[in-house]
Amino acid sequence: MADTLPVKLDAPKLKAKDFKSSQEVRWCPGCGDYAILAAVQSFLPELGLQRENIAFVSGIGCSSRFPYYLNTYGIHSIHGRAPAIATGLAVSRPDLSVWVVTGDGDALSIGGNHLIHALRRNVNLKILLFNNRIYGLTKGQYSPTSGPGTLTKSSPMGSVDAPFNPLSLALGSEATFVARTLDSDRAHLHEVLRAAAEHEGSAFVEIYQNCPIFNDGAFEVLKNPETRDESLIRLRHGEPIRFGDKAVVQSGYGLQVVDADSVDESEIVVHKADVDDPAYAFALSRLSGVALDHTPIGVFRSVERPTYDKDVRTQVDEAAAGVDRKEALDRLLHGGDTWTVL
Amino acid sequence: MNTVRQLDRVVIRFAGDSGDGMQLTGDRFTAETAKLGNDLSTLPNYPAEIRAPAGTLPGVSSFQIHFADTDILTPGDQPEVLIAMNPAALKANLRDLKSGGTIVVNTDEFTKRNLTKVGYDDNPIEDGSLDDYQVHPVALASLTIGALADYEVSKKDAERSKNMFALGLVSWMYSRPTEATEDFLRGKFKSKPVIAEANIAALKAGWNYGETAEAFAVRFEIPPAKLAKGTYRNITGNTALAWGITASGVASGLPVFLGAYPITPASDILHELSKHKRFGVTTVQAEDEIAAAGAALGAAWGGALAVTTSSGPGIALKSETISLAVSLELPLVVVDVQRAGPSTGMPTKTEQADLVMAMFGRHGEAPIAVLAPQSPSDCFDIMLEAARIALTYRTPVMVLSDGYIANGAEPWKLPDMADLPDLSVEFATEMNAVDAKGEEIFLPFQRDPETLARPWAVPGTPGLQHRIGGIEKADGTGDISYDPINHDHMVRTRAAKIAGVEVPDLEVDDPQGDANVLVLGWGSTWGPIGAAVRALREKGVSIARAHLRYLNPMPRNTARVLEQYDKVVVPEMNLGQLALLLRGHFPGTDVVGYNKVRGLPFTSNELEDALEEVIKNG
User: Which residues pair with B138 in a beta bridge?
Assistant: First the structure.
């Protein structure tokens, strides 16, 4: 198998509807997952691939139903294990575009280990983490991204768990591509998916996703026209980081939000996703906490590093080139100390 | 002048501190013995700690070899010869030694301090406590250092070569050639030729010591065994297993994918397979046992011959993934090299206590095929069978090896490549049904009427895009289904598929045809049971034997076989797990268990006694 994705130049151009499966979509009315599904279906034709060369792997949770609704190859696996299963597929099948769909519980709680190791290895996977900060499918317990004090069925006096910052975690895991987007911003979502697809290696995309049943309005502050200008930072590679009347500057070991007119233009940080030192992207990821006060979206980090799957294949391909396996097996068995009984 | 005496068989045990190189010494003695054409069987026994405190009882490492001029089945119950490199090795192994046996003891280590460390008040070499044995006190370390005086090696390096001195001496005692070991040492210390030459000099000094020291008046010869014609090599179970996986890839024409996480005693399979990339074998050392199984399953979905290898604690972690493989109906070979449990248990010691876990250790009704190799070399054949069943029936298959055969070695008659089975598979490439509108469609769970296997349509196949998952599927379409009747049907279908796996009939060895008692074993007890049965028959006792390599499904004729005997004795290194299955499957059978869980294989003597007792008591 060639080590590139098979693009058929003469194939008819596919449309979003070509990626809809026959299954009836069954998320709750108003769920953010609908918007993400529509965005993904409208984006997939851009890959320029045939449907059979795309594989979606998911774990367990509301978001993990995703593969059923796409007319590609898909596997709805077990809780937290999608990155591990996808790693096996990606290593052995370079001709596939492999996507992982996961949620905050699936990726960060039960499957945390697989997520960090997939990112560390830089396996060529596109990981979409739908973060709604709640367990939806099990009907509303706090998740590893729920804020302290969150009142749920399993935390009637308020959660005392300290949450993960998913992007900080991904960056700490040596991720080469880290981005964040919003379920409700179709154009931005599309743009981030494109950047993720173009990245060679693990691409980690956190998608803030509204759960209308158990955590409605969790990201409202980023969506409401009255508050979003104050809180939403749109990162653009090569441009100074400004939002509303604010700007981001260096401060101590990290970054700080200041009034734009209180600093000189030259002090405003110009966003560069390709900065090799992950400390910069990490500092960006720390601008917002649970309260979403200053929340960057866009591509935080996009750097090049050898991919695990390709390196594994290279070793095997080089060793196996031109080998007659049956003859080699005979030689293996007869190698070393043998003796013959006549 | 030495006398040469012919023997038909000998059991030798090399024992020393875990840093003394006893496993290497044993391996080399084994290679020399194999070269000479004796039949042989070996048993390494070492502590889990890489370097337990020097000179202590927990730090003792040993290697036992049984070799003979006839075919043999076990590494021997009791050594006749003990090489003890220090007081701890003597103390830990003496009770196993046959009365009247030979002890070669390294006197240099028998210092007051070392004796006290293991609880000897007096020096056993001098206090008469070894009067029942033939003791050869040899100052192994100082003789080695003396022999290497002209070599430019440190005293420490010279002292470390004492295992080669011991090997040379024992090789002389049993008339083994040493040329292959000399070549081996040159290869092993390629970058340090001085060390290589020093080791060779130590080996030769040991040999010459035997020849000249008057203490060794007799040397022994064990003529070659009359084995079947063919080319042989010595092989351990783990190596045979890894080669069996490699051969399955060659026989199926599929790429092999191994997902594994290091665990004793299965890691050697990962090590071995990682060397075989030229066969298209990919090995992924995963972040944990779950990921190892998951990655293998992902590769299986993609069309690889997927394997995951571990031991009991790791298999427990893989359980959920194996259940998913049952639900997805994808081929997955799972190897459990069993060790003494529960929990960490005794990682370097053997046991057969994962049988019930292999059968039932999953949630829901999740049947899988279960096989067990019966000897080190059988690990090769069993893997080809596991691959055949996994690929034909699109199912997980569990292979239950154990620490005893994983690390034990025996001569293996090499198979002819022309006899390699054809394991090629046909992937689905076309639509396989027509819908109500008359349009061609693909049904991912449309089954083969013979095998009940579903089509294996790998991603990348045009037009056959489909979604599969752990949620119950409608038979045929594979669509999500909560229909009660469909679920009942799917559970029964998955069970029927495994029950219908083709396996060879159970062979019964009942030469006189008048036995009332059948001894039925599984897995690694094959050797000790065989030796016990042989000994009983030599005494004129009638006994039948059979051995299960296929535990799920069991051979079709199993019921017929069991019906013919008044009693069925089932020796197991667990508390009766096969016995439990037999009582469930064949309630009319009088099953008598013989169970021990000491982390050690059965001796043939104890089995002989136990079987004789059952036969006598009718």
Answer: B106
